[in-house]
Design a protein that fits this description.
Elements lengths: L1 E3 L8 E9 L3 H12 L4 E5 L7 H4 L14 H4 L14 E2 L22 H4 L3 H8 L12 H4 L12 E9 L5 H11 L3 E5 L2 E7 L6 E7 L5 E11 L3 H9 L36 E4 L2 E5 L11 E2 L5 E8 L1 H7 L4 E6 L11 H11 L9 H8 L7 H10 L1 H17 L16 E9 L7 E8 L5 E6 L4 H20 L3 E5 L4 H8 L33 E3 L14 H18 L16
Helix pairs in contact: 1-7, 1-16, 5-16, 10-12, 14-15
Length: about 575
């Protein structure tokens, strides 16, 4: 059932077996899966069904970090969370991500790939992206072809797949189920502002939560799950000093030992990771252009997939490569030198006042970036010269992307008669203690200290990009398949100029075997607590080549197993209304 915070009396105490903070993908999945096992769940969401600028502003950061995107582009304080902005790409981590590697120094996961892989199929079902098969060689409809003729997987591989969701907005997909559930109480418009510890004990006594119109309530549960996103989860832990006065006891941005729950060893807010993305080269294939798989394919169930070039574990270790994927993309939309009527048409649409209606603002801005010069007149001329093709594209893609029922095509690609394609590098951001977030003296409207981000990319991050391209170029030349042509004379400078992040927020509450090395343990419990858990990409020890959503859901499913096993036997009694008890 769903309850608006405005209908709850101020001073009320809401109770449940499990309280989940945040109704994004991780929070919704946690609540639904626990309810299926007979658990009574209270799901708190800061926003409502519709976007609200005042609510969104609660999560704004301060400090002007030039390497970090604005939080409004990366997060959404709204039912469904970041799935309101999500493009739908589903990719798991790889086995190598969980193993010890020289390139990530002493960053060690306390769990193995085998601990999360069993949850991939259920994660795929919840993301509506088909079967948990991420290798083209295992799909009969795809296995008979390679990315280009003659490409045989070796040190460089081209069989790795990303799967694409509908795309699934978790609010739309599961909203009716949440409202119909007799075991879930979803309270919208209620923001958790503090976790109150029971005196000096390693146990949570209650949560404090407020609405923007002044309603204040407390929440009591047997277990508490923080699923409010990477930085918001970290901010809530920083804001919680345990005495219930709402003041916090952290220093204003010092970091080490600066207070907050989970900061027992100074790691809270540290190890902040995003992903390294870069476009520095074009690939010139020497194979028949018509046989290049340059866009999306569909598996036997009609799910859209895309092939990526990746690097075998042995090659990563030998050549000191970060885990990364490289895939074919269109030329930069903004540079009219591409001469394409379709690309110029898309650019003009995205750059128009209506552009924000077609894609999430962060994606729109990424598409509009260009290293070349923008000329609206030249774009218009491109369209006019190829008007029939532009009109045909608009009709066909518009239907498949926005009007067709069921699965929507994730994007579009323009084939190259010359068999030349731009390359997108997407790789892990190497963990660094100095890359961090920290609380400040500036507070949001509810009195919670805002964060300052200091997202840092190292010289090794830059060199990993260059080394990966060198290995790909060497592989193509050795097998007579093509070569890379770099777009810049100063490759390190070009890579560094493109480095930014904040869409994938990882590492700031990282998992560790011992309390001295991190914030949460292998079961996602804050070290020393048996009732406070984190379901967020902030627990990632390394960031891998995969974006965050799919892995967060897989970890949330693993957490549900742990919670269900450690709680008392499930009660058959349905949840009570949140106006008194949940």
């Amino acid at each position: 059932m769903r309850v608006a915070a405005s209908t709850i009396s101020s001073g009320s105490c809401l109770r449940a077996e499990v309280a989940v903070v945040g109704a994004g993908p991780a929070g919704i999945v946690t609540a639904l899966e626990l309810a299926k096992r007979g658990r009574r769940v209270l799901l708190l969401e800061s926003g409502a069904s519709a976007f609200d600028a005042r609510t969104q502003a609660l999560g704004d950061t301060v400090g002007g970090d030039s390497s970090h995107v604005p939080m409004a582009l990366a997060t959404r304080r709204q039912l469904g969370g970041a799935s309101n902005l999500w493009g739908g790409r589903c990719v798991p981590f790889d086995p190598i991500d969980f193993r010890e590697r020289e390139i990530v120094a002493d960053a060690r996961w306390p769990i193995a790939y085998a601990d999360v892989e069993p949850h991939f199929q259920r994660a795929c079902e919840l993301c509506v992206c088909g079967d948990a098969v991420f290798d083209a060689r295992r799909i009969p409809q795809l296995a008979w072809r390679s990315l280009i003729p003659g490409f045989v997987d070796g040190g460089v591989e081209a069989s790795s797949l990303e799967r694409w969701s509908l795309p699934t907005n978790f609010a739309r997909e599961y909203g009716d189920t949440l409202e119909a559930s007799q075991r879930i109480v979803l309270v919208s418009g209620l923001t958790c502002t503090e976790i109150v510890r029971a005196g000096t004990a390693r146990r949570v006594e209650r949560l404090r939560a407020c609405s923007l119109d002044g309603i204040e309530v407390t929440v009591e549960a047997a277990r508490y799950v923080l699923a409010c996103g990477g930085l918001e989860t970290t901010r809530l832990l920083f804001a919680s000093d345990g005495d219930g006065d709402g003041n916090g006891d952290g220093d204003e941005g010092d970091g080490e030992g600066s207070g907050g729950l989970g900061n027992h060893s100074g790691h809270l807010g540290r190890w902040y990771m995003a992903h390294v993305e870069s476009r520095i080269a074009d690939v010139h294939f020497t194979t028949p252009p018509a046989e290049t798989i340059y866009g999306h394919e569909r598996d036997g169930d009609g799910v859209y997939v895309r092939r990526r070039m990746t690097f075998a574990e042995q090659l990563q270790r030998e050549r000191r490569l970060a885990n990364a994927a490289i895939w074919l993309v269109n030329p930069e939309l903004g540079d009219p030198a591409h001469g394409s009527a379709v690309l110029s048409f898309v650019y003009l649409m995205l750059a128009s006042p209506f552009g924000e209606r077609f894609v999430a603002e962060g994606i729109r801005q990424a598409h509009l970036k260009t290293s070349g010069s923008v000329s609206i007149r030249r774009h218009v001329m491109n369209v006019l010269r190829g008007l029939p093709r532009a009109i045909g594209f608009a009709a066909q893609f518009g239907y498949k992307r926005y009007l067709k029922r069921g699965r929507k095509v994730p994007g579009f690609f323009v084939s190259s008669a010359a068999n030349v394609y731009s390359l997108m590098y997407h790789g892990e951001h190497l963990p660094s203690y100095d890359s961090r977030v920290e609380p400040t003296s500036s507070c949001d409207e509810l009195g919670v200290p805002r964060l300052r981000t200091q997202l840092r990319f190292s010289d090794e991050d830059v060199q990993c990009v260059i080394r990966a391209h060198e290995q790909l170029d060497e592989f193509l030349r050795e097998h007579g398949l093509g070569r890379l042509v770099y777009r810049y004379a100063d490759l390190p400078g070009a890579v560094r100029e493109q480095l930014s992040g904040g869409y994938h927020q990882a590492g700031t509450t990282r998992m560790s075997e011992s309390p001295e090395d991190g914030v949460v343990d292998r079961d996602l419990a804050v070290h020393g607590f048996d009732d406070l858990f984190v379901a967020s990409s902030s627990v990632f020890v390394t960031s891998g080549q995969a974006n965050s959503t799919f892995m967060v859901i897989a970890l949330a499913l693993r957490l549900v197993d742990h919670l269900d096993a450690t709680l008392q036997p499930a009660s058959a009694r349905p949840a009570e209304r949140a106006s008194g008890r949940a």
